[in-house]
Write a structure and sequence with these properties.
The chain is of the alpha+beta class and 181 residues long. It has one domain: 3-Layer(aba) Sandwich (Aminopeptidase). 33% of the residues lie in helices and 25% in strands. The protein contains 6 helices and 7 strands, in the order E-H-H-E-E-E-H-E-H-E-E-H-H. A 7-stranded mixed β-sheet has the order 1-2-3-4-5-7-6. Helix 3 crosses helix 5. It is globular, with a radius of gyration of 16 Å.
Length: 181
């Protein structure tokens, strides 16, 4: 398997040929990703193979959100806002692989990088959970099977508590760290 490299979106990032098969995601990447990244609405990270460092084979977009504490279950420590019913969280807004690279474990590696990023950021600035709203039952199963995501108290969303993310990253062996969790 070729080595995957991760970088923040830049002016030289080439995603003209990126097609994941989900028209909403493909449209967002082409029309809004650069603008939203520049405005700091999303942190867009792309994955490429070492031999084509500016060509996107996968990407994810993270954003800061405010979540109801009740949706995160009872055992997630958090720093609440003034009314104590909401807390800051990180949301995985988009994640996709180029169509021809799907079902080859590249998405698992992309998710591993998301979890590493969340574990680092969450620990540094006090974000208790990573939230994802899967677009399909297949995507939902992917997140649960590969990332230990838990269901929201209500609705179809999932979340990953910071304590779980940090334990996943800590348990990774040094030789695995370069490519996966």
């Amino acid at each position: 398997m070729p080595e995957i490299e991760y970088r923040d979106l830049s002016d030289t990032t080439d995603f003209a040929n990126f097609v994941c098969g989900d028209s909403e995601i493909d449209k967002w990447l082409r029309n809004d990703a650069r603008k939203h990244h520049g405005q700091r609405k999303h942190l867009v990270t792309f994955a490429s193979f070492g031999d084509a460092p500016d060509s996107v084979v996968g990407f994810y977009a993270l954003s800061a959100v405010v979540e109801k504490v009740a949706n995160l279950g009872g055992d997630v420590p958090f720093f609440a806002f003034q009314d104590a019913s909401r807390c800051p969280c990180l949301q995985l807004t988009y994640m996709a692989m180029q169509k021809e690279h799907q079902a080859q474990d590249h998405g698992t590696l992309l998710l591993a990088n998301v979890i590493r990023t969340f574990a680092r950021l969450g620990s540094e600035i006090g974000i208790p959970a990573l939230i994802v709203a899967p677009g399909s039952e297949r995507a939902r199963k992917f997140y649960i099977d590969r990332g230990s995501f838990e269901p929201y108290a209500k609705g179809g969303g999932l979340f990953l508590p910071l304590r779980v993310a940090t334990s996943i990253v800590t348990a990774a062996s040094p030789e695995d760290e370069a490519q996966s969790i």
